[in-house]
Design brief:
- By secondary structure, the chain is mainly beta.
- The chain has a single domain, classed as Porin.
- The protein is about 10% helix and about 50% strand.
- The chain is built from three helices and 14 strands.
- The chain starts with a helix and ends with a strand.
Length: about 300
């Protein structure tokens, strides 16, 4: 079974590399989902027991200890708003099922003609629906698969796409280590805006989570976009993120994150300020948890997220 799994992942990576020539359309799918993941600046592929692993690594769905749901809101730049819903539960004899929805609302815009005469207003929105399943193949290894349906509209135009997410999670309990890998948004545009199809925003990620012995902290390291074209081999690993979740008590968590590629892309002149840095925290109230995250875009601005989760 492990040999088959390894062969499957290698084949998937080779297939993914053919779709990774540029960043593609449906860019809202690159946003982090959930304040916990955003507080760690996207270093989430090897995290466990969270319903939002559905969006990062469906192979981690089996790590949920009970049925859980989550909802969140994103305050983006220029009054752009977004959010998500997710729910996961175990089904005996099948595996752990998950479902989620993502949306972005870009607001209302004034429509004009070539002479700048006002004709009215129009809006722009994105939405994605996900259904996934995770299954254990042995006590420490699990795999997962999502089906993702994507729809985008602006004024009287629309576009749609269909994609798959694949993931694997491997746990080493004796060393408090979890390894994860995922291929996200591997698919095609079914309908384009102008008749010319664009690639989807593929992301291939591997990561590790480690809890040091006798220290109340989870340390994450993820490498993203591993199949993107680069000028040399070492550059494939320049897109990485770091995250630390400090377990202050049974009910309080603090988070810190860093995204290297984001910091480089948001650098203006010789200064990046705090671009690529994230802060966050969470508080548990019985069966409920409230998380908040702040992500700096440097001189451009900042993003704020809030999420509410619950066990069922």
């Amino acid at each position: 079974m492990k040999r088959r799994l390894a062969s499957f992942l290698v084949l998937s990576l080779l297939t993914a590399s053919t779709y990774s020539q540029d960043k593609g359309t449906f860019s809202f799918l690159r946003n982090d989902i959930g304040a916990r993941a955003a507080g760690l600046n996207g270093s989430f592929v090897s995290m466990t027991d969270d319903p939002n692993v559905l969006f990062y690594n469906p192979g981690a769905l089996t790590s949920l200890t009970e049925s859980k749901g989550s909802a969140g809101f994103l305050k983006h730049l220029l009054d752009v708003n977004g959010g998500y819903l997710s729910y996961s539960r175990s089904l005996e004899g099948i595996g752990t099922m998950g479902a989620g929805v993502l949306y972005m609302d870009y607001g209302s815009f004034t429509q004009t003609d070539e002479s700048m005469n006002t004709l009215g207003t129009f809006g722009a929105r994105d939405i994605a629906l996900l259904v996934g399943i995770g299954r254990s193949i042995d006590p420490v290894t699990s795999v997962g698969l999502n089906l993702k349906i994507i729809y985008s509209s602006i004024a009287g135009y629309s576009s749609s796409g269909l994609a798959l997410d694949m993931g694997v999670l491997y746990q080493i309990p004796s060393q408090n280590i979890t390894l994860g890998a995922s291929i996200l948004t591997l698919g095609t545009q079914l309908k384009s805006y102008s008749g010319a199809k664009e690639p989807l925003p593929l992301d291939v990620t591997i990561g590790i989570t480690k809890r040091p012995e006798h220290l109340p902290v989870l340390l994450n390291l993820d490498f993203h976009h591993l199949t993107d074209q680069q000028t040399d081999f070492a550059s494939h690993f320049s897109s990485f993120s770091l995250g630390a979740e400090f377990l202050m008590s049974e009910s309080v968590r603090l988070r810190l994150g860093y995204n290297n590629q984001q910091r480089k892309e948001l650098k203006l002149g010789t200064s990046a300020n705090l671009a690529g840095i994230s802060l966050g925290g969470g508080i548990v109230f019985g069966e409920y948890v409230i998380d908040y995250a702040f992500n700096s875009y440097g001189k451009i601005g900042s993003l704020h997220r809030i999420s509410i989760g619950s066990s069922f």
